[in-house]
Write a structure and sequence with these properties.
CATH class of the largest domain in chain B: Alpha Beta
Largest interface: A-B, 67 and 68 residues
Oligomer: heterodimer
Distance between the termini of chain A: 65 Å
Strand content of chain B: 15-25%
CATH architecture of the largest domain in chain B: 3-Layer(aba) Sandwich
CATH architecture of one domain in chain A: 3-Layer(aba) Sandwich
Radius of gyration of chain B: 21 Å
Largest sheet of chain B: 8 strands, mixed
Order of helices and strands of chain B: EEEHEEHEHHHHHEHEHEEHHEE
Helix content of chain B: 25-40%
Helix content of chain A: 25-40%
Structural class of chain B: alpha/beta
CATH topology of one domain in chain A: Rossmann fold
Number of domains of chain B: 2
CATH topology of the largest domain in chain B: Rossmann fold
Chain lengths: ~375, ~350
């Protein structure tokens, strides 16, 4: 913490815009889905960076764009001093050895017709790491031991394993080429609670053992908080807040982060009964037609006239006592909200319609229905 | 259950020794639900909690008579208002379903008809059970959509399921379930497919519903956080049997079954300390042993004794508890003097 940590991954203004095409012959582009819209962040060597956000906020697309599995339409990704976004062919392929990915659904990301041995060897062979058969064999057994699978697993096929074990295979495959960075996209959300904990613990263990850097992408705040050193909160394609994990949870500053945290159920009735929830009105706006100004202003209970609707806030350091400089937030009024100068107000849910965006009006329905249902 | 308190309020639904077996065609039968009993009183929210394969969904499908008839065996009873639902034929059951008992499912997209507009789908329930004419039913549907917090209900009536967001679809399903003001609502993982902020909206809606209308709710979920905020009584299921039952405060303050504590230890808490490792339960459901040869959880249990692998423990009242708290364990966690709520 005292010395300046080495930056392993430097992401600058990355955008991924998917064209929306219409027409049979001409493929006219009629608009764009702004999946990732200006992401800037740095990941230090050896740390775990957690990226949270709800479905459709672009977090997975961002993870894929880092590895160039999705072509960024703008911005740069620098990995260990090399600009990945301009690499081509062989250079890109060899760089990818150092950046591996663990996917959400282990069954669909493992080839059902390959044995575990061949799954694990494939990457090693592609990168010329399996020339010595004996050494490769030893490496495989070492990998399996590291992820807690028996050596007998090598000759089995993915369907013979349970969900948690499959995820272990996915992790072993990522580890097989000895990477520096692992991008884990929802690594535990497909698993049962008791197995989730096993995989989370495993991720922590292998990180320590192999000195890995993680980018963990997840929607579950509790999981992200547990595993990450630093956390970035994403909303509609860009970061709204970034801070050290403990800091973020102690003093969430962005209204969206506050709402997100208050919405996570806590397995303790005493806490649940007491805490105040911020229930957001309406749904996530379509990334094909993001709101002007602050992306969150349509649902924000602290929205102020004019400025929030027109000016898009940038990540900035706030001047609040006890909030360190590493805690950055993209909100015009973070200080006033924190001090209580600006109070929460009611928000009418806005009907979200990706196709007909112009006739959208705020309906006058209440956030929470107050009508009663009577029993006959 | 042995300790049924004498008539606190009348019981709305009493499930007794429910057994569901799948099998046939020469395959060995599989007992998905193995003697589940619980009561639901009006206005009460009862939670069925467990991981995949514990039989929680099958229990609800059996109560609703939605399991396929062929190849399954359903035994036991589910008495709703004096009638045993399990003995009704299809026609009689259809009269109850939707009118007295309604259900909402995990995936709203696959439980809505994709080629029929939302309005017609909601109105269908009203026409079938309340004998309304189509025009009145559509007008009533509009009010229902409004009640569940769908903005611009008049427009949404004419739309199709794919045009709605996930949270909106779940609201539409809730509107359908509420159309006949049922006295019992079964919610099978109603928020699992939704984002947390939308989950909070839906849970709030369900909470209000229970308070305002006195509808009883059976909440089926794997998420102990949801249970902590919503359920009056919690039943923890494992391998088709109830392993622990108590009020929500009791279960969270003094969990005594090793599986319940295991589940609690497995969840990273938003407000907990970050540094320590999670206390994961080793193994997976595949390691279970059948209840006939002991406790199904024994192979994964940290407190398993010799007797756990030879004899299935009975479901008994916890002698150290101040209130109703039943437990199926030979060697429960030591009772701590946790604050009895």
């Amino acid at each position: 913490m005292t010395t300046e940590p080495e930056v392993l991954l430097d992401v600058e203004g990355v955008e991924v815009h998917f064209p929306i095409k219409r027409g049979v012959f001409f493929d006219k582009t009629v608009g764009y889905v702004y999946a990732v819209d200006g992401m800037t962040l740095q990941i230090h060597r050896g740390e775990t960076y957690g990226l949270v956000g709800e479905s459709g906020c672009g977090k997975s697309t961002f993870g894929r764009a880092l590895l160039r599995l999705e072509e960024p339409t703008a911005g740069s990704v620098t990995f260990g001093g090399v600009d990945v976004s301009t690499l081509k062919g062989e250079a890109l392929r060899t760089t990818r050895r150092h950046m591996q990915m663990v996917f959400q659904d282990p069954l669909s990301s493992l080839d059902p017709r390959q044995t575990v041995e061949s799954l694990l060897l494939e990457g090693m062979q592609a990168h010329g790491l399996a020339k010595d058969k004996k050494a490769a064999g030893a490496r495989l057994r070492e990998l399996l031991a590291a992820v807690g699978l028996p050596a007998a697993a090598l000759r089995k096929y993915p369907h013979e394993f349970s969900g948690g074990q499959r995820q272990r295979i996915g992790i072993a495959r990522a580890l097989s080429v000895d990477p520096q960075l692992i991008v884990a996209d929802e690594p535990v959300s497909a698993l049962d609670v008791s197995v989730q904990a096993q995989v989370i613990n495993l991720l922590e263990d292998v990180q320590e053992k192999f000195g890995l850097t993680y980018l963990v992408i997840a929607h579950d705040l509790a999981v992200v908080r547990h595993i990450s050193d630093r956390v970035g909160v994403m909303y509609l394609g860009s970061l709204v807040e970034e801070a050290d994990s403990d800091d973020l949870y102690a003093t969430p500053l962005h209204p969206y982060t506050r709402a997100l945290m208050s919405a996570v159920p806590i397995p303790d009735p005493l806490v649940e009964d007491r805490r105040e929830q911020i229930i957001l009105a309406g749904d996530l706006p379509s990334p094909a037609n993001p709101p002007s100004g602050c992306r969150f202003h349509t649902r924000c209970p602290w929205r102020q006239e004019e400025r929030c609707d027109t000016e898009r806030p940038q990540l900035r350091v706030v001047e609040i006592d006890g909030v360190p400089a590493s805690h950055r937030v993209a909100c015009h009024f973070a200080e006033q909200i924190q001090s209580g100068e600006i109070q929460r107000h009611e928000v009418d849910p806005v009907a979200i319609d990706p196709s007909a965006a112009t006739d959208v009006e705020a309906a006058d329905a209440e956030v929470v229905p107050t009508q009663t249902f009577t029993v006959p | 259950m042995t300790t049924a308190a004498p008539a606190k309020t009348e019981t709305l639904l009493a499930v007794r020794d429910l057994v569901v077996e799948f099998g046939g065609r020469g395959r060995p039968t599989f007992r998905a639900v193995d003697g589940v009993s619980f009561d639901v009183r009006p206005g009460q929210t009862v939670g069925l909690v467990g991981e995949s394969g514990c039989g929680k969904s099958v229990t609800s499908l059996a109560i609703m008579g939605l399991l396929p008839k062929r190849g399954n065996k359903v035994a036991g009873s589910a008495t709703y208002d004096g009638t045993d639902l399990l003995t009704l034929d299809d026609r009689e059951m259809r009269d109850h379903r939707g009118r007295d008992i309604a259900m909402i499912f995990q995936d709203p997209l696959s439980s809505l008809n994709p080629v029929v507009s939302i309005g017609v789908q909601v109105a269908e329930v009203l026409q079938r059970h309340r004998g309304m004419k189509k025009s009145t039913a559509i007008a009533e549907s509009r009010d229902l959509l409004d009640q569940v917090g769908i903005p611009d209900p008049a427009r949404r009536l004419k739309e199709y399921p794919h045009q709605l967001s996930g949270g909106m679809r779940q609201r539409a399903l809730i509107a359908m379930a509420l159309a006949c003001k049922p006295r019992l609502l079964i919610a099978d993982e109603p928020t699992t497919a939704l984002d947390v902020t939308i989950q909070a909206q839906i849970l709030n809606l369900l909470k209000e519903l229970v308070v305002d209308s006195g509808t009883a709710l059976i909440m089926i979920t794997h998420d102990l956080g949801v249970v902590a905020g919503l359920c009056d009584e919690v039943n923890v299921l494992y391998g088709g049997r109830i392993v622990e039952t108590a009020s929500r405060h009791e279960v969270f303050a003094r969990p005594r079954h090793p599986y319940t504590t295991g589940l609690l230890g497995s969840i990273p808490r938003l407000d907990g300390s970050r540094s320590e490792q999670l206390a994961a339960i080793p193994g997976s459901v595949a390691d279970n042993i059948p209840w006939t040869s002991g406790c199904a959880f024994a192979p994964r249990c940290s407190r398993a004794l010799e007797v756990c692998r030879s004899e299935a423990p009975p479901l008994e009242q916890d002698p150290t508890a101040m209130e109703e708290h039943t437990l199926r364990c030979h060697n429960p966690n030591p009772a701590e003097g946790g604050e009895p709520a």
